[in-house]
# Entry
Amino acid sequence: MWLKDNTLFPVVENVNKDKKRTAPEILSIDERVGSCGQIESTYTKEQAENEMARCLKCPTHWCQEKCPAGVPVTDFIAAARGGNLEEAYKIIRTASMMPEFCSRVCPQEMQCQSNCTRSIRSDAVGIGKIERYVTEQHYESGKGEEKAPSNGKKVAVIGSGPSGIAVSQRLLDKGYSVTIFERADRAGGLLEYGIPNMKLEKGIVERKIDSLKAQGAEIRCGVNVGVDITREELDKDFDAVCFALGSRSARNLALENAAGVSGIVFAVDFLTENTKKFLDGDVADTAKGKKVVIVGGGDTGNDCVGTALRQGAESIVQIEMLPKERGHKYIFERPPYKEPEKKHDFSQEECEKKFGDPHVYQTTVKAIHAGDDAKVHAITTVNLEAVYDEHFRLSMKEIAGSEKEMPCDLLVIAAGFSGAESYVPEKFSLKMGERNVIATDGYNAGGKYFACGDCRTGQSLVVKAMVDGRECADAVDAFLSK
# Structure
């Protein structure tokens, strides 16, 4: 039976019956586009208390069940509402290795908040915003993370993105000595270079890295494993090696006449250059004064929209292969009792004010047009037809004769990733599975080698990479505890 035991349901007193979620302070559009600063502020004490009072502490824990990490949502909110913020943080940390990131970048409207009881008749409780407040209060207290007694075992972690941070945090919590190897000049991976500062302040990433160091982690940046340090050295110095390489092979488009043409960039490179210059006190101008076309309608594509705006693009078009509404698939996935909460994207809001809606749906790019200077100056697009089979599976087919030419000085490809880069797995004789990911038995990639995150599962969400890192750490612990 789907109903759960309600007999011990404690009635929550002084419930805030407001239908609307408590709103944090948000920069105006003009302030946002004029800087790369954080758009949305953390709740104040009053705002947090007001929103926590909207939680009914349902005994069903539907919100927790929808959280990929299984965070005990109602428990941590109850502890925080009772004034025990540090206890609330500890409850969060039983499941999440990095709440400072998940509270900011998780799609809560599709996860925990989508299952919130309050959302049936009003706004869902702002779970992510409360989690962010609790985490910030923990850092402000200066208490840091508890140091576990050393168990004498050493683990190398290759990569410092979401799964690398998560596996390192969990191993540190268990008393392991952890050394993180990162080939970039700064630690953080996707969190540092793949997500713009306005969505995730880089000081938050650096603070987490400092916290790992304070807990005992050694972090070695500018080290390309397999090139600067050999397999033999890692095998000699460490009891286990965890590969958290991410999914860095950007998916390309089959574009006619693109060979040798400049002005075509992958989203990951576009965003990385922007953040690097920002951190160095400089301003990137890749999109300045240009007619920018972005291929991809996901979060990364939206991040490119916001970044191009801040760099001073002359115009922005965002091409999306899929339909605006998903037809049968959309209808059958929607719960019958409520409308799904729509994600608010600040970059789209900003672009709409300056240029209007940038989207062109059911379209893709087919060819490139370059001038004598070998720079892109236009693209050919083609319209796509949405076709559903008997199982409501969607496929997109080109519509013959629908080709159009569109001006373009900068083409940004945000079409996702096709798997992990292969040179590190090759150096360690790791087997590769489907979708160009490291093949594992559970998390074990052979002997003392383990893999986690996108290099094991394929491209996914930050929170899912975090969970994969957490579970991988437990697998390493079980392996080394035999």
